[in-house]
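Researcher: Batch entry, complex prediction.
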Amino acid sequence: MLPEYLNERVSKALKREKLGLKDQNEILKKIEQTYENAKISPGEAIGVITAESFGEPSTQMTLNVFHFAGVAEMQVTVGLPRLVEIFDARKRPSTPEMKIPIKPKYAKTIEAVRQIAMSVRETKLVDISEQIVINVAKGNVEITLDRKKMRDLDIKPKEVLTKLIEGMKGLDVKEGENSIILKPKDKETVLSEVYKLKEKAKEIHIRGLKGVTHVLPIKNKEGDYIIHCAGSNLKEALLIEEAEKSRITTNDVFEVMDILGVEAARAAIINEAVKVLRDQGIDVDIRHIMFLADVMTRTGKIKGITRTGITGEKESVLARASFETPLKHIINASLIGERDDLNSVVENVILNQPVPLGTGLPGVIVKLPKGDKK
Amino acid sequence: MTDVYLNERFVGSVTNGKSYVNTLRDERRKGVLPLEMNCFYDQEYDIVYVDTTKGRARRPLIVAENGKSKLTEKHIDELKSGTIKWEKLVKEGIIEYLDASEEENAYIALEEEELTKEHTHLEISPISILGLTTSLIPYANYGGSSRLIRGSKIQKQSLGLYATNYLLRMDTDVNVLLYAQNPITKTFMHDIYGWDKYPAGQNVTIAIMSYEGYNMEDSIVLNKSSVQRGLARSIYFKPFNAEELRYQGGLVDEVCIPDKEVKGYRSEKDYRLLEEDGIVSTNTKVGQDDVLIGKVSPPRFLGEFEEFNIATNVKRESSVALTHGDSGVIDAVILTENEEGNRLVQLRLRQSRIPEVGDKFASRHGQKGVISILVPAEDLPFTASGIVPDLIFSPHGIPSRMTISHLIEVIAGKAGALSGRSIDATTFDAMPEKEIRKVLESLGFRDNGTETVYSGIDGRELKTKIYVGNMYYLRLKHMVANKLHARATGKIQLLTRQPIEGRAQGGGLRVGEMEKDCFVAHGTSLLLKERFDSDRTIVRICENCGMFGVYDSFKNKEYCTKCGANVKISSIEVSYAFKLLLDELKSLCVYPKLILGRKY
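Model: Structure tokens for the complex:
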């Protein structure tokens, strides 16, 4: 009666305890009984129960303003807005965040960790240049590099030059005295084009992970160094030599999906949701969250609980129409002649028929008398 | 050069903004410039703003110069003796009004001792941060700001004497508290306001303890015997009126006892209280559905009726009657005329409102609660000296809300009641707790306000000492009598055939979307169906085309308007709202075909 993995564990444990056959049977019986009792009966409205289990406590969530007072922390979306973000499956979190643990052998001093953190942060050309100006007379862009900042970040001018050549194709990149000069190859360039060039040059990526705007090295309770990053770039983070790759986390579920696959994305959804709820001191059973994550990822893609996501994929026209944008659904249904079999809750409430759930689920099978066909 | 703006408009510039502003102020204090003028020098942008417009909130402050207040002891003595008045101080530039922008330039000392040379003004009193209602809260400096806000909000809902001429007025929704009292613990504002002339509340003896679990979740236990002696009793007035309207063709409404021929005649019983003139007299007891003013109106569409109707004089009934569940005594009848010269009949219904389970009470500290039970005095706990509380307040209301002022009022009220005087509980300036304790001690009571209490049920001494004292309690205008509502069947909407909404119309209570979810979550599918059965209908469906068929009850035949009589027509039960939905879809040229199957 027990599933295989449970059976194995139980029999192993029984062997270890060296019990008599009678006792063994007794225990097995009890376990089976407990397992049987824990099963959900057919017709239980687990979806609604999950929805209520989330909905009721989330009305108690408050915008926790006191949370950030004075602590070296980064601004992260928490509470209801974050929960909505997760379950709506927004493509990007409003505050992407990544945590990179550092291998102990590289984290001997806080200085070393800080050095790593600085190399993780994205450095753009603007960050290391004193000024970027357009020389109107010559029709070019002059970049004056900030030597001090470059020394701090350990960046050589050569490196900047190569990055610039890479990033600004179709341009003449020359090293002047004390500055770098960008000049369009086409001599008759209009000034507005030069301006665009300048703006593009500012954003040239020099070093670090793209998208990571802030870094904050933190020593956690276990004594491990973790770099908190505002902005997430899992793909590049996995290439960092000093990082403990198996423990890197990000709050961008879609990024996890792209890089590690749908099962990891499911786990990420669960983790993120649990994190939000724990933060607010709300106790929702993990199985509700797991169920929701399952529903969101069951197609192999992440789908939010929105009219474009799983709610929009409901079978029934009436059910979809009663959620959002009824006109769209009714028009489309009438165009293709859609059929509604009234298999779910809302349709039957609209028609005032018993809902096929709980006591309304079981039907009666009757053997009809011979004369009556159909 | 500093730009000068007068009433937001550029008027010119001066060389030194700061000294210019100071000159303006001096001139104002001397009386050369108007007292309503305020000026502000913006140091950051180097701009002077002068404002004389209306609508700015301004507040009075004492002017200070060289570390000395301009208001001297002499002034205060003169004020006390009445030889000078406030206006004079304002005119002389001792007190001046600042608006929000001029306050930016001011450096205000809170106390006279704090004054330094840099200070420009002195606060008249720290209480000026509070408004009228908030300053009515005793010991407000011992309570949190959120509770003070709630406390002042609650005071506005309390019953009292709202106007001395209430018997001559015809206001809607009027409550008047009988036996209203002046509080024992009062603030300076009670005297300024004239609270003794318009009191709203009563001094009650309270015990802070639980009572058989009846005061859970902010509910309060009230002494039934006290209520019977008149505690928190109030009267409620409700006006009714009828107007003799004029219609086209010289027709007028008529206030009278309606004829039996009148269209929409109620039953004879409903009209029994009407006098000859068609109006009930004063001091008549009226109950639900009783007609208060009998009135008939001319028919609606006059032209049509005259041509076809034989009975020419079919008038409509348009009496004013009490709604379902309402009752009371007619307090006053007023016959008058309105501005258009139409005859106007006004009635005032009076109801005696004795506190009952569900009525709302509150102290002045934002501590509101609802009566959960009325207990006879013999069942209530009593102190060693035989005092029985009027009200029992739950101690669970205190820790999370931190209304210390509530607790202090209890002993302050107790000290006041026992020594026969009122206690000054003005914010920041109240009689200190130490002194209250001294008073209690000198009167032979425990100084912390607790008492030995015996159970009212079995007479045994309670193991703990109970905090007993006096408080000023307010009866709030939210009473169950105005809110109680339930219905089985009743009026339905014409369009959807679902029950109508609202207590006043005798409507239903909605089982909404979330309530529906609860039924679903419980799996009580058939119960859910029954709940939503209010608009169920039987419709006939043509099984050929899937649209509505027709039942001809005269011929006892079913047919389909499209497919004729030779098709199978089946009856199904659906909600009327669904039938409407299908009709609506059809009107949009969408063909909703119903395919019937066997249910089992």
